[in-house]
């Protein structure tokens, strides 16, 4: 059961990694017209910022305190509250930039690995709001791909990964115009899954459902993208494509 739930969060990560910019759940407070003009307070402590008793937009200094809190505490209740506060503030375009510049995306991204599923959910929600910013999307893709690459090296996770339901936008990671670093990670993910698939002796195609990661990776659209990448101008990308076995 634990493995299945973990794969469920991997699927959510795949969607985010592909640049999908929607919330996993609706924010408790919507962004109201003129909300950028709400009162700003600088006297709150890091813990005070998570109490949810006010609607203030946080300043850069307060956001920095919140990010420090995320790194320094192991209290699950404080972590959840901090992620909710950060997620709410990430709904504002100005704060999306500030959080990125403060190095907040990898801090939030690491919480996806937390064993507490409520913390995972709130971290994904914060990343979802942050991903509305185009520049943030790139950093979020590398963050999620790092997690997926770690999982893809484990043969025990292969079937679960391939069976995870994934939005079709995932295949956009294999477009030729994608940044080299992200493209190479996406290709390595495919390569790792292939290698684990071989080790497990599952060369015959199992009955994975439509919309699964297997359905997308071994479908016609992905095959066409791989063929196009053979002619990619970067030598590292071309080399990586040629060593991925064809099914």
Can you give a write-up of this model?
- With 247 residues, the protein is mostly helical.
- The protein has two domains: 1-21 and 137-247, Leucine-rich Repeat Variant, CATH 1.25.10; 35-130, Leucine-rich Repeat Variant.
- The protein contains twelve helices and no strands.
- It has helices at residues 2-17, 60-72, 76-89, 93-101, 104-109, 117-130, 134-152, 155-163, 180-199, 213-217, 220-229, 235-242.
- It starts with a helix and ends in a 5-residue tail after the last helix.
Quick summary of this structure?
This protein is an all-alpha fold and 247 residues long. Helix content is 58%, strand content 0%.
N- to C-terminal separation?
A: 30 Å
Strand coverage percent: under 5%
Main sheet attributes: strand count, strand direction, barrel closure: none
Cα-atom radius of gyration: 20 Å
User: What sort of overall outline do the alpha carbons produce when their principal axes are compared?
Assistant: elongated
